[in-house]
Amino acid sequence: MYFLYTIIASLSLFFILKWMKRRRYFMELKRLDGKTVLITGGNSGIGKETAVAMAMRGARVIIACRDPSRAEKAVREIKLKSGSLCVFPMELDLASLRSVRDFCKSFLMREKRLDILINNAGMPGVLDWTNDGFSMCFGVNHLGHFLLTNLLLPRLKECAPSRVVTLTCSNYKYQKLDFQDLNYNLLPFFTYCRSKLANIYFSQELARITEGKGVTSYAVHPGFVQSSWTCHYSFPFQMLMQVIMWMFFVPCEIGAQTVIYCSVSDEAAEHSGGYFVDCQPATLRPFARDAGVAKKLWEASERMVRLV
Q: Which InterPro entries match (predicted)?
């Protein structure tokens, strides 16, 4: 009898975990021939799987990564998996505003098109600071991508219709922004939550200011994914999270589906400024839909990255 209970419990757990990890696949194979896609952090995880999907559709794919050797290795793997030779690395460190500016200058000189910008790279909550004195999490996840997008926005407008897809997380709901201390860094998890909320406001305000100009913007929660974010933490924590991720998180290929959907789907094009989960629009908490806060964050970010 004990054996039977064990079998039933094991099967029940198996099916519960399968149910928790269910996700939609985006099956539309829309071609992207002649289009250029830029993916930050495209050397691993969701970014890498997204790069494979974009390359398979015929796009010219640029992988932006702070480590040239890792980028080169990823490019070889993406080419092999996608069967495309149009995948190229470029060096970018989102923790340095100078690096972002240098990257954009090089990109605009080298690339004549930019049709899809995927702000994928992210930093988990860590007690560290960027070269410019911002908390690492807020600086990389929001400010680095904010500056990158603004500097590349003229090229996106030239190539309209174009899209900007920014990865966020459902953890945004656990924090609100404090404009007296956007750099909050005492509790890393809450700093991460604030940065993900900032991504959502950024995507909404970008949609507002580019309305009618051919550029659309989307915020994507890819789900909880089996990526390499734990590398920033201690070995015991990594081992614990590997077990948890295996049980409850989805593979990167599945996590990339909503990113791909927002990058190419005609349906998504009708929801600029929207928040997407599992290849469909999702509802945000009321405080995350505040247009006044989104505008205020945009203006504060302009000052922080010295755009004004």
A: NAD(P)-bd_dom_sf (IPR036291), SDR_fam (IPR002347)
